[in-house]
Amino acid sequence: MKYDYLGVGSGLFGSIFAYEANKRGKKVLVIDKRPNVGGNIYTENIDGINVHKYGAHIFHTSNKEVWDYINQFAEFNRYTNSPVARYKNELYNLPFNLNTFSKMFNLVTLQDIEKKLDEERKEGLAKLNGREPQNLEEQAISLVGTTVYEKLIKGYTEKQWGMSCKELPVSIIKRLPVRMVFDNNYFNNKYQGIPIGGYTQIIEKMLDGIEVKLNCDFFENRSELQNIAEKIVFTGSIDQYYDYKFGYLEYRSVRFETEELDVDNYQGNAVINYTDKEVPYTRVIEHKHFEQGKELGNEVTEGPSVGKTIISREYSDKWDSTKEPYYPINNERNNTLYEKYKALADKDSNIIFGGRLGQYKYYDMDKVIEEALKCVKNEIK
Ligand code: FAD
To answer: Tens of pLDDT along 290-340?
Structure first.
């Protein structure tokens, strides 16, 4: 065989596996059907702004080992994710915290806010007449009351899933974290940040010295690739690998509309969520704020991005096989179907399925790093 491993996919999982295997003396070929490496974390520098081409990516973890690992490949800034929600012409801080509630209810003290939220919850629970919530709407109202639900949850969630909250299962929001402090930091993790200079450099460093073929779809070259290596590390869709023999796994897709504007600062924040149903997109991302946020408020910046900004509107989209599968829909039907594919994979010693599509799990980047490192450790003793 020509190679020890064929890596299908140059996203975070495939690239970490390739890097670690190469370091251990293995010969690896990595292919990707896209014209660029990096999978969904790929960033492209346009006019000095690192544009997150496949959706905004904020690195966050509480795992020091993972944080140290990724920091070998880039220097990270201390970006703190503090999204703002826009409901019609009202703006609220996220995640739900005292800033959000004091503005929503026009209240000042913690005690008054607690009292108001309790009243709202009680009203919600009274509507249930003692029975358990049967759908996402009932669950959300019982957790945070009608006002927060109507303004910040309903429209956004319905756009995200393309379904009414009355039809969505309770399981989607088991809990709704409510912070009774003035703190707009979205993530609870110890470490968070954005790599200065974008994510692509991380993948390029991992793949340095490894053979990479882009614009190469495994399925279009299957006969030639299937036996090119001792083992395949497959980070595409597991159901596609098995010719959908048990049926299709379902995903949600996202459509991005990206626009360059001749202003220095468009919305004053990297992320604004549009939570009413009338606006068709879910979020507007202003990419330069991930790396230049604070400077924009204080001083004139230098370089090609002065007087320019790039925004992306995100539209949640129904998935079909012509679109990118972004989010696995881990409901009962799909999880049962995935287990059938996994059982096939477990019997096949020539292939490893990894990452978000290979394992059909919504992994954040830190989890993908953990899983990839675990996989290499098991595989190459
Ligand atoms: P991918 O990045 O999907 O890589 C798989 C690669 O395989 C792709 O490059 C694809 O082209 C290639 N491929 C697939 N099929 C084939 C084939 N047949 N032949 C050849 N190549 C193939 N995580 C965070 O921690 N923070 C965030 O803020 C965050 N935001 C996100 C926003 C969005 C919109 C999305 C979709 C995800 C977000 N994530 C975030 C999750 C993050 O993207 C993933 O954890 C990570 O990118 C998964 O890496 P992966 O290698 O498993 O998959």
So the answer is: 998 655 554 446 677 788 999 999 999 999 888 999 999 888 899 999 999
Q: Give yes or no for a contact between 51 and 312, defined as CB atoms under 8 angstroms apart.
A: yes
CA-to-CA distance for 178 and 180, rounded, in angstroms? 6
Active site residues: 175, 179, 252, 283, 314, 362, 364
274 within ligand 1 shell (Cβ under 6 A): no
Q: How far apart are CA 305 and CA 265, in angstroms?
A: 10
Domains of the chain are 3-76+193-245+329-379 (3.40.50.720), 107-173 (no CATH)
Token pair, residue 30, equals 């990595």
Decide the pairing of beta strands 283-286 and 309-318. Answer: antiparallel
Encoded amino acid at 338, one letter: Y
Residues 6+ apart with CB under 8 A from 82: 93, 94, 184, 185, 186, 269
Indicate whether residue 13 lines ligand 1 (CB < 6 A): yes
Taking only the tens place, the pLDDT of each residue in 94-130 is 999 999 999 999 999 999 999 999 999 998 888 888 8
- Tell me the pTM: 0.95
Residue 33: CB within 6 Å of ligand 1? yes
